[in-house]
Specification:
Elements (H helix, E strand, L loop, with lengths): L7 H16 L3 H16 L3 H6 L7 H15 L4 H5 L1 E4 L2 E4 L12 H8 L9 E5 L5 H9 L4 E6 L2 H14 L3 E5 L11 E6 L32 H9 L4 E10 L5 H10 L3 E7 L5 E7 L3
Helix pairs in contact: 1-2, 1-4, 2-4, 6-7, 9-10
């Protein structure tokens, strides 16, 4: 594209076309990604792009934008390019050390909040916290709750602690391989978004997940290794009547409910996301 033709609008149009064609996104999604990349590259608000669509960015700005665009066209996730992802109405800092927070996981938060009365100091544990998005959201939505979050990755915990500091969320963070550092501790509610993709699933070699930590995604031949482990161990860390809620794969609800029942959880249930896919299952221990 000639220098004199490289207006903001033309740059965004070109990027939209290339993103759509390369990544298989529809025009709306591709345009949104182009705007996010431009706003980040030029450190401007998205509204600025509309108000200045006929402006001619400096060559340095064009280079910055096209460098980000090339990385996106290679498949690198937007969240890792910008270092940010919104979750439950808040911005979280993310890096390749942690999974990218996804809207599906907001269902886990919503179900957890139903077990957390706003006027009680319930004890809550978040297993495999990653960016800290679940633990931090629960702590901020229920200020009286005492939230503990664990992860076996020190790098992930550093990211979670950073988000906690930025958002002023009182969360206790511990290095722990599931319950290994929690001997003798019991909670009113345990939540977890463990790895649940089968190790040979071809989706692990496609799209954004190619750039995410494999240890936070894959869990054995059927994707249930970590779910089996944490569900079996959870009763030993719950108070009588306490609840366990876990996120899982789109086709794992029946298997997870069976695991919950075998571990002693009464009347396990599953809940659908906005696409009517059962993504979260859980149950309560007997009083």
């Amino acid at each position: 594209m000639a220098r004199e033709a490289a207006t903001v609008a033309r740059l965004l149009d070109d990027a939209t076309t290339r993103i759509g064609a390369t990544l298989g996104l529809d025009t709306r999604e591709a345009r949104l990604e182009a705007r996010v990349l431009a706003a980040f590259a030029w450190d401007v608000a998205p509204a600025w792009l509309i108000a200045h669509d006929t402006d001619l960015p400096a060559q340095e700005q064009i280079t910055q934008f096209r460098t980000l665009l090339a990385r996106r066209l290679a498949g690198e996730p937007i969240a890792y390019l910008t270092g940010m992802r919104e979750f439950y109405g808040r911005s979280f800092r993310v890096s390749p050390d942690v999974l990218i927070p996804r809207p599906d996981t907001e269902l886990l938060v919503e179900r957890a909040l139903t077990h957390m009365p706003g006027d009680q100091a319930v004890e809550v544990l978040d297993l495999g916290t990653g960016s800290g998005c679940v633990a931090i959201t629960l702590a901020l939505e229920r200020p009286l709750a005492r939230v503990t979050a664990v992860d076996r990755s020190d790098a992930a915990l550093a990211a979670a602690k950073n988000n906690s500091s930025i958002l002023n969320a009182p969360v206790e963070f511990l290095t722990s391989d599931w319950f290994s550092a929690l001997a003798g501790r019991r909670f009113d509610l345990i939540v977890g978004n463990p790895p649940y993709i089968a190790a040979a699933d071809p989706h692990l070699a496609r799209g954004d997940v190619r750039f995410e930590p494999l240890s936070a995604l894959a869990a054995g031949p059927d994707g249930l290794d970590d779910l089996r482990r944490l569900i079996a161990a959870a009763p030993g860390h719950l108070k009588p009547g306490g609840a366990l809620l876990v996120e899982h794969g789109y086709d794992q609800a029946n298997a997870v409910r069976a695991l919950l029942q075998a571990a002693g959880f009464s009347q396990p249930q599953s809940w659908p996301d906005l696409s009517s896919i059962y993504r979260v299952s859980g149950g309560n221990l007997s009083e």
